[in-house]
Amino acid sequence: MVKDVGEFLVELVGEAVAEVVLSLLACALLGLLALTVYVSWSFSPRATLAGAGLLSLAVAHGAWRTFRAPAKGRRRGGLAAVTTVVFTTTAATAAFLAFYATGCGCF
Fold first, then answer.
1. Verdict on whether the full-model pTM lies above 0.85
2. Do 24 and 104 form a contact (C-beta atoms < 8 A)?
């Protein structure tokens, strides 16, 4: 009984520490993204918009290639693989930020 309570407390503290670490990581990532956009915009607004457009195009193509059924007997090309990775990474980062950064008081 006492051993069970001790294991429960260790697990509870471990989860609390993990939540704090993940929330701090999410806030740091959000701050880094905001700083990157600010510095980029300060350097060249046109280049920032062009980069955002290219990133949006890559994410859209990756999503299209991810959710589209591949044709029989055809492999994905190099561009499709790269944009699929870009889409997956962007989606995972957005989900991470949406889940953890909302509780850090950054907004």
1. no
2. yes
